[in-house]
Amino acid sequence: MICIAEYTAVATAITAVAGWMTPESVRTYVSINADPWDNNDQIDFEEPMGSLGIEYDVHRNFRLFAEHLSSPMQCNDHPGINHAGVKFLAPIGNATLYSGLSVNSSHIDSNDRFTGPLASLGVEYGNDFKIYAEHLASVKEFEDGRTSFGFKVFFK
């Protein structure tokens, strides 16, 4: 069963409109991703997961971002996981390697057991349509995080 609630539909529409209205340097996206091993101790969502996000590359090696994660396969994931932070970028052709630090509030967010700031490590390939792989976890328990593969569609 797919459970896309009205909040998700409205947030997706707002994400698309924001992408079309913001300057070229500010990009918004939706994504679908999955953890093929589904053995994560820090996130309790049914696979696959979706995300809505916004990013701004301040420099070719420095990105600011905010992102919402939730699962279209479950109805009880409101308000999902929300985090914002920075990513350090290493472009290599059309691919970009990155590492990031972000903050979230586990007291407000649902279905996660994050402690402290979050760290991410990933690679993305493409421009307006990106495929990517990312590991997201608490800094304190990085090895217990979620490694996912997916794609992002950007609005511009």
Written overview of the protein:
This protein has 156 residues and is mainly beta. 10% of the residues lie in helices and 51% in strands. The protein has 1 helix and 8 strands; from the N terminus they run H-E-E-E-E-E-E-E-E. It has one helix at residues 6-21, and strands at residues 26-34, 49-59, 62-70, 81-92, 95-104, 118-126, 129-138, 146-155. The radius of gyration is 15 Å and the shape is globular. It starts with 5 loop residues before the first helix and ends with a strand. The mean pLDDT is 83.
Low-confidence stretches: none
| Oligomeric grouping of the chains | single chain
Q: What gyration radius follows from the Cα positions, in whole Å?
A: 15 Å
Order of strands across the main sheet: 1-2-3-4-5-6-7-8
Fraction of helical residues: 10-25%
| Euclidean distance between termini CA atoms | 31 Å
